[in-house]
Amino acid sequence: MGSRPVASPAYKRILLKLSGEALMGDAGFGIDAGVASRIADEIKEVHGLGVEVAIVMGGGNIFRGLSARARKMDRVAADHMGMLATVINSLAIQDALEQIGVVTRVMSAIEMRAVAEPYFRRRAIRHLEKGRVILLAAGTGNPYFTTDSAAALRAMEVKAEVLLKATRVDGVYSADPRTEPNAKKIHRIKYLEVLEQGLKVMDTTAISLCMDNRLPIIVFNLTARGNIKRVVMGEQIGSIVSDEGAQADAE
What is the pTM of this model? Predict the structure, then answer.
């Protein structure tokens, strides 16, 4: 009796967007080393399947530019501080990955050669081709752009096949499920519907970038162990934002 064929990953190259909040666990602030290690284990498992992995980190667990702006801080200064927070998070994930034998590179949009390589598109692609996990830090390097926009931009630049948005929620909902008990989960939705309905998937710049370049977005729950691999293997979890499927498949 022959052995069952091993399933292949659905994607060869992915861009994984990790929120800063995902790193803080239950602490409410900063970086939980245990959470960082768990995320690193999951990334290693996916990388071991032959998938090329680029990561963009958020910085909300350390500093959030928009919140600082509300406290009358200059927007440009606040956004630069937020970018530096993403570098700290990227270094934390780099350390967690390298402790378990994954070769990584941190590439920063803001030059700081003592801790990270400058971001160059061709070099980033070369690192991926050589089997290195790359962490793309400091957003786009420009104020007024979120890390969501940076994730969409970098995904296009490195020719990722999909943008995986890992959050604390298990998909896209018609309203915030944490405050609206009747919110419906939407399994598949078009980019334009996200924009028209004002759904908080990613900011409008990021959604527009993905729509213009037909880059699918999968939103899923990072806190459920093994979900990164499930998405990469093509399992139908979370929500898909793309130009396919006119219906918003609500349950």
Answer: 0.91
